[in-house]
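Priority: medium. Attachment 1 of 2:
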């Protein structure tokens, strides 16, 4: 395992292991802190932690490594993840999580992230579950259908679509109405130049990366064969992909030479989750022209170091704290709690690429901000006017 990849794996494990270990031991509710700014989020925060962790770690779990040391760690972590899922969806478990939304709609969000994790690692996180756990997982996801989504005319429409995509992958059946509605509305909300509105209005934040563009891609790729019967599956995937490639260009250029990036918009305490879409394009081998895998690796490594090496990022027991650069609880909105923060794992999607992929093996390459602000003058610099 090369030095940079080892750093990524170790950092991801530092973030994810407390969640997976606690759920495996049926002690997540007992041991996970619930830090929040204004409201008690204890009814929803635990599913947040699980769903978001699995959505980020899934591609790595799904990719056996030729490196013996890494493979042993990956296989052991995959076992923990399956045990965590089984305990989370078992009605008899003390860590049975809230999928109903009886008091808060939030479970719809994090059931969708859990579903996204299943889609990203179907062999490890679905096929290797025992039959009881599989049945319980399907039942848990179906519970979210009672949560009304019309109150949320924004990125929330993608959450039922993602859940239905996962149900189709698991059972061969789904409610396509929920998928069609999300796809059609987001097409209406496209603003141009690779960016969607979060609803009818444009919002200057990272929700295109946190949720919108990755979920549009994961849903359409999973359901492409079904959607093609309606004459738009393949077209939709190609269209969404072209837009995300453009958005990935923008994201790469927003990473400054020191690994910082603009702290713009709500949910900034998701930290490295801001680069979800860029990480997904690297994972899918769909980086835009002029943006090499090596420069993206270097850019994302700089962001990871800036966010996770800051003092106070983890509490004394290894749980994430609210903040962007260290412990900054004042940055957390009313809906932010400890479990919310695990969306940061989404930056680690390229660990799903094999160790001999150019993303990992190519020599370090300066990313765009370094090239420009070092005074570089070459054909490798971006030029949107071309």
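Attachment 2 of 2:
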């Amino acid at each position: 395992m090369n030095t940079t990849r080892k750093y990524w794996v170790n950092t991801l494990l530092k973030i994810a292991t407390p969640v997976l270990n606690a759920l495996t031991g049926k002690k997540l509710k007992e041991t996970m802190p619930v830090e929040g700014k204004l409201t008690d989020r204890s009814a929803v925060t635990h599913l947040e932690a699980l769903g978001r962790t699995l959505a980020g770690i899934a591609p790595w779990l799904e990719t056996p490594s030729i490196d013996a040391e890494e493979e042993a760690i990956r296989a052991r972590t995959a076992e923990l993840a399956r045990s965590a899922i089984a305990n989370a969806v078992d009605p008899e478990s003390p860590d049975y999580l809230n999928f109903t939304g009886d008091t808060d709609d939030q479970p719809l969000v994090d059931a969708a992230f859990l579903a996204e994790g299943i889609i990203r690692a179907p062999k490890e996180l679905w096929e290797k579950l025992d039959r009881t756990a599989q049945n319980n997982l399907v039942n848990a996801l179906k519970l979210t259908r009672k949560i009304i989504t019309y109150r949320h005319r924004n990125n929330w429409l993608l959450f039922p679509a993602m859940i239905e995509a996962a149900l189709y992958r698991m059972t061969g059946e789904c409610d396509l109405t929920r998928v069609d509605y999300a796809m059609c509305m987001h097409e209406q909300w496209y603003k141009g130049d690779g960016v969607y509105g979060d609803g009818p209005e444009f919002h200057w934040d990272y929700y295109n990366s946190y949720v919108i563009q990755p979920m549009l891609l994961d849903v359409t790729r999973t359901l492409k064969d079904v959607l093609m019967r309606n004459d738009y599956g393949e077209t939709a995937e190609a269209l969404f992909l072209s837009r995300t490639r453009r958005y990935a260009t923008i994201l790469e250029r927003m990473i400054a030479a020191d690994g910082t990036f603009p702290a713009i918009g709500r949910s900034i305490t998701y930290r490295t989750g801001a680069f979800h879409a860029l990480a997904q394009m690297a994972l899918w081998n769909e980086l835009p022209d002029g943006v090499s895998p090596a420069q993206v690796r270097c850019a994302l490594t700089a962001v990871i170091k800036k966010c996770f090496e800051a003092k106070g990022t983890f509490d004394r027991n290894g749980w994430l704290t609210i903040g962007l650069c260290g412990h900054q609880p004042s940055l957390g909105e009313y809906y932010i709690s400890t479990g919310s923060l695990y969306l940061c794992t989404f930056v680690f999607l390229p660990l799903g690429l094999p160790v001999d992929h150019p993303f990992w093996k190519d020599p370090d390459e300066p990313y765009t901000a370094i090239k420009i602000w070092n005074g570089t003058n070459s054909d490798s610099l971006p030029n949107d006017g071309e």
